[in-house]
Amino acid sequence: MAERTRVIEVVPYNADWKTQFYNMKEMITSYIGDLILKVEHVGSTAVEGLSAKPIIDIDVVIESYSVLPAIIARLAKEGFEHQGNLGVEGREAFQRTFADGHMKYHLYVCPQDGKGYLEHIALRDYLRANEAARNEYQSLKLKLAQMYRYDIDKYVDAKTKFITDILRKTLYR
User: Fold this and answer.
1) CA-based nearest residue to 46, from 8, 15, 92, 71
2) Which of 110, 119, 125, 154 places its Cα 20 to 30 Å from the Cα of 86?
3) How many alpha carbons fall within 13 Å on the CB side of residue 9?
4) Is 0.90 topped by the overall pTM?
């Protein structure tokens, strides 16, 4: 099962997150680069200026699920455990089974037309392009991190309406 956040901590944007992502991308590409289309930095750490939990979200994009068995096998050899979709359609989660020297991250393998991937990109790109929405989301996240400091489920649930509203404006017009 995915590692659960014990204490919700939202910190100011850190320009080093971009460097951290590129280092992780290099690592992942060295394992499965010939099987994938691309590696994307998603989530709040991918939005310059946005406060976030200091956890990098990574989407590894594949053409189709036909390559997933080979990816699972290769990542297993490199110390990643396949966790399934964890209840989110269009993404397969992987967790590192040992410390690898990188900051904390979530690794997902997603088909290029998968709901999980498309929503990640739509939200990221909208927040990158819209300062007012970015500021509103940041305020919401900071408030919720205080309210639900020890309850990740309530923190995530309380952000759902904001995210869904953005996805309605972008992906589901």
Assistant:
1) 15
2) 125
3) 7
4) yes
